[in-house]
Amino acid sequence: MDRTRSTSRRGSWWAKLVALVAIVNLVLVIFDLSYIPWRDLYYRQFPQLVALYDPFKGVEPNRVTQKYLNTVDELEQQLSEAGPKTPAVESLLADLRQQSVAMVDENPFLVASKAGTFAKIKNRMRQEIGTESAKEAFDRFWNSNYILAAGQEKVLAFFDRQIRPLMEINYFRNIDDTGHFVDNFWQLDVWFVGFFAIDLFFSTLLASWRQPGTSWFDAIWQRWYDFFLLLPVWRWLRSIPVTVRLHQAGLVNLLGILDNITYEPVAYLADRVSKFVMVRVVDDTQNAIKQGKLSRLFLQPKTYITINDVTEHEVIIDRFAELIVYKILPQVQPHVELLLVRSLEATLKKSNFYQGLQKIPVLGSLPVEVTEQITNNFMQTVASVLAASYNDREVREVFDRLKQEFNTTLIKEIQDEKITSELQSLLSDWLEEIKINYIHRSAAIDPKVTLAEVEKLASMNDES
User: Fold this and answer.
1) Cα separations in angstroms, 26 against 23, 39, 200, 247, 275
2) Residue 279 and residue 49: Cα distance in Å, rounded?
3) Contact call for residues 26 and 242 (beta carbons, < 8 A)
4) How many angstroms separate the Cα of 20 from the Cα of each of 26, 243, 249, 331?
5) Whole-number average pLDDT of the chain
6) Is the pLDDT of residue 359 over 60?
7) How much of the chain, in percent, has pLDDT values that exceed 90?
8) Measured on CA atoms in the order 330, 332, 338, 342, is the torsion positive or negative?
């Protein structure tokens, strides 16, 4: 007992550990998948993280835009030291005009799929200068006369606030020998994959050892969802085993979530399934009746396959006989006596003997008293005789012969083609009415109400 409990505790903490490692890996996978699409956001919010992770995705600063920004930095330094009308400043401005023309022609933002960013840069520059040409806007912007006219601080502030952030997020991504972008995420992921592979190997080996008749291969296939943790592609599918792991470790309860997600679909699906089953059963029964299978079941009982040595319909008849003799007959005896009394009175009143007695004062009420007495004695005798004789072996033999003769006669009469056809037609029509009325009635019932009632009953059972 203590060993089993200790093993259970170890399994519990190990399951929690594996689940936590799996969730860490999934978070890392999601971050990797989102890194390139959301790199701009990561760059603004977590620049140190971007600098650390860029090498794993083969991301480098774009040489064209980086050189452009470095030149602007040199220009800002020269302007702050010597002013706009110096040979060094004029040289830097000429260099920036040349770089701007090359940038517009070559569009270095295409590699990073940031054509929209470059379009935004050109639009802002055109609006600032007030021209329709991007090249003309850059040419006038990087001119000493414009800087003097607009103001050195204003020009540089515009560039640093409106243009520089858009250029900084541009990058270049290396391509490997296969023609795909460099992606070294596997260097991080391989450690997790190795951990999951070791866990899968030993856990399935242990499961096959604990479950007699289960091979190691079968145990592996029982954990088919864990294979998603080992795939180097489609890593987003790891969300499936991670979810299962969290639920198995007891860190997340998915039953309530699944109930809420599937509540309404399950209600309507169950409603459709119940209707389908009902209609299918009725249709199959109708076909059996029309094809004569149901009549052959009673007429040719030897062809009927049984699952035990008991003849169920004979046992049912015996049970009904016992129920009638011991339960029903004693309860309805007063009503049967009254019925017999009224019947005998009506018969006697029609006889000439009864009408003659009515003329004699003393004997006028005698027939009624005699009738009641006879009826009472008759019913008591019948009830007691049936109750006493039903357990008598000889009487049971007579009863069995009567039952057998009744069955034989019934089968013989049912074999009449006219009677069989009529019974089959009536049963088929009756089943059709049941089917129509069931579908019509169930259509008026909201399946969600039924499902709520089922859940209520289930909760009551759980509480009890």
Assistant:
1) 5, 19, 17, 15, 43
2) 63
3) yes
4) 10, 11, 9, 71
5) 75
6) no
7) 30
8) negative
pLDDT at 206: 83
User: DSSP 3-state assignment of 100?
Assistant: helix
Q: Are 83 and 89 in contact (CB under 8 A)?
A: yes
Helices 417-443, 393-414: inter-axial angle, 10-degree rounding: 90
For the record, the structure tokens of 129 come out as 């200068």
Bridge partner list, 171: 61
Averaged pLDDT, 188-194 = 93
The residue behind tokens 């200790």 is 6
Tokens at 409, concatenated: 């006669």
Higher pLDDT, 388 or 204: 204
Q: Is 58 helix (H, G, I), strand (E, B) or coil?
A: coil
Dist CA 202 CA 18 (whole Å): 13
* 172 alpha-carbon distance from chain centroid: 44
- Return the amino acid letter for 133: S
Instruction: Look at strands 59-61 and 171-173 and give their pairing.
Output: antiparallel
How many other C-beta atoms can be found within 10 angstroms of the C-beta atom of residue 21? 18
Per-residue DSSP letters for 189-244? HHHHHHHHHHHHHHHHHHHHHHSTT--HHHHHHHTGGGGGGT-SS-GGGGHHHHHH
Q: Which residue has the tokens 């009567």?
A: 402
Which 3 state secondary structure label does DSSP give 175? strand
Instruction: Sort residue 107 into left (φ over 0), alpha (ψ -120 to 50) or beta.
Output: left
Strand pairing partners for 173? 59
- Work out the pLDDT band at 352, boundaries 50, 70, 90: low
Q: Specify the pLDDT at position 164.
A: 95
Asked if pLDDT for residue 355 goes beyond 60, the answer is no
pLDDT of 223 higher than 80: yes
Q: Cα–chain-centroid distance for residue 93?
A: 66
Quote the pLDDT of residue 381.
63
Distance CA(20)–CA(256), nearest Å, equals 21
This prediction's pTM: 0.56
**What string of DSSP letters covers 367-389?**
HHHHHHHHHHHHHHHHHHHHHHH
DSSP lists the bridge partners of residue 59 as 173
- Identify the top-confidence range among 102-116, 242-256, 339-353: 102-116
